[in-house]
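User: tokens in, sequence out, please.
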């Protein structure tokens, strides 16, 4: 999706829409994946303990991501790259915001 946004790959509306819908769906699975205690079973993990120390903040960032990716999927249906670009940027910001706070690099 990033390659299409940057023009490194030709924009394909149907393909972009399919991927945007996958991201929006995945955002729901991600929200269910961080179960307290699961980090101990996961072995190697970059998930910070803050996830379980600040569950409200983590949930809020997850909700931002779900909302942005759902909006991106909606905008993608329109096939208007000029409308898609800013929404893609907004969605990517929600990834970064959570990684910065809750993921070890
Ligand atoms: C609410 C928090 C949150 C949001 C939002 C989020 N992530 Fe993450 N992400 C994490 C955490 C925490 C990890 C580390 C998980 C681990 O190592 O167990 C991670 C790991 C990853 C990884 C590495 C996976 C691996 O197996 O090593 C990728 C790639 C990734 N995220 C991509 C994304 C993208 C792309 C988005 C947005 C479209 C996104 N993430 C949104 C919290 C988030």
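Assistant: Sequence out:
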């Amino acid at each position: 999706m990033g390659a299409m946004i940057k023009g490194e790959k030709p924009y394909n509306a149907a393909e972009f829409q399919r991927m945007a819908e996958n991201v929006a769906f995945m955002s729901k699975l991600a929200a269910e994946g961080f179960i307290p205690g699961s980090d101990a079973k996961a072995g190697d993990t970059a998930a910070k303990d803050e996830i379980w120390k600040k569950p409200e903040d983590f949930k809020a960032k997850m909700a931002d991501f779900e909302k942005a990716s759902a909006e991106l999927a909606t905008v993608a249906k329109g096939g208007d790259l000029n409308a898609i670009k800013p929404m893609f940027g907004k969605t990517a910001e929600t990834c970064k915001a959570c990684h910065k706070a809750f993921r070890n690099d």
